[in-house]
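retry 2 of 3: previous attempt timed out while embedding magnesium ion. Reduced batch size to 1 and resubmitted. Inputs unchanged:
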Amino acid sequence: MADNQVLTHVNLERQGFSKVASGKVREIYKLDEHTLLFIATDRISAYDVILANGIPGKGSLLTQLSAHWFDLIKSEMPELKTHMLTTALPSSVPSQLRLVLENRTMQVRRYPILPIESIVRGYITGSAWAEYKRAGTVNGMSMPEGLQESQRLEKPIWTPSTKAEAGMHDENISEARAAEIIGDDVAKMVEAASLKLYEMARDYAAARGILIADTKFEFGLDPATKEVVLVDEVLTPDSSRFWPADGYEVGRSQASYDKQYLRDWLTNSGNKGRDGVTMPEDVVKATTAKYREAYERLTGTTWR
Ligand code: ATP
Ligand code: MG
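retry 2 succeeded.
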C-alpha cells in the first residue's frame, strides 16, 4: 500500500473471519479457539470521538512499535509472559487483502482479560494532576505537598482504573479496590509487572530523548498456570504520554508526541467532541510527523 493511502475501514467477515470486537482504532477477529488477529487501522480518536479521516500509516506504525517493545520485553523481562505471537499475516488472509493488511496485524494468544486498566505514572499530569490540584491525592493516595504540573515523581506509582464499556469513561480506583476486583494476589502481580515494565521502558526511552510520562497496560490471566500475561498494544502514543525530553519544563503542560496538535486544533476550531469531523491536511501532516518522530527515536530506525 502506498504511504499516502489511508485505511479507516476493513471488514474480513465476507472472507469468513468472525469478528470479536471493533474498537476505536482496531478490528479484532478470531483465527481459532486460542488465537486472535488484531488489525490496526489508521483511525484516530481524540476526546473519545473518532475522526472521519485517518492518519496514513498510523496502524502499521503503531503495530511495529508495539512489536518492537514486545521484542525488548522478551529479552529484558523474559519472566513475563505476553500474548504476542507474530506480526506475520496468517496464510488464510486472501491475496487481494494482503497488501492492505501487511505490517498492521498481530496474531496474539487469546486470554481472559482482567477487568482493570493498569496505569503507571512517572510524572504527574492528566487526571492525576487534576485530582492532586483538587484534593492533594492521586487515586486517593496521599502525595507529597507542593508538586508542580508535569513534575517527575520520586518513584513511579501504580494507579489502576476500571475498564469502562464503550462510550463510558474509565474511573480511577484505589489499590484496595483493584484488589477487590481481581483478587489480592493477582493485583500484586499486575502492579509489580507494570512498575517493572514502566521502569524498563522509561530508561530505554529516556536514552532516546523521550520521556514516558505515563502508560496503560492490560493483562490477561493464564487459566492453566494462573500467571498474569501482558496483552493488548504496549507503549504506543495511543496508550502512553510521550514527551520530547528536550522541551521538558516543570510547572506547565508538555507538548506531547501523540494527539496534542489534533486536540489543540479541535479545541480552537470549536470541533471538540463533535462526531464525524474531518481533519484538514495540515493537521494530518503534523500528526503524522509526530507519530513518525516518536517511532524513529524509539526504534532507532527510519520509518519507511
Ligand atoms: P478503545 O478503542 O477505547 O481502545 P477498546 O480497548 O475496547 O476500545 P481496542 O483497543 O481496539 O478497543 O480492542 C482491544 C480489546 O481486545 C480490548 O478490549 C482488550 O482488552 C482486548 N484484548 C487485548 N489483548 C487480548 C488478548 N490477548 N486476548 C483477549 N482479548 C484481548
Ligand atoms: Mg484499547
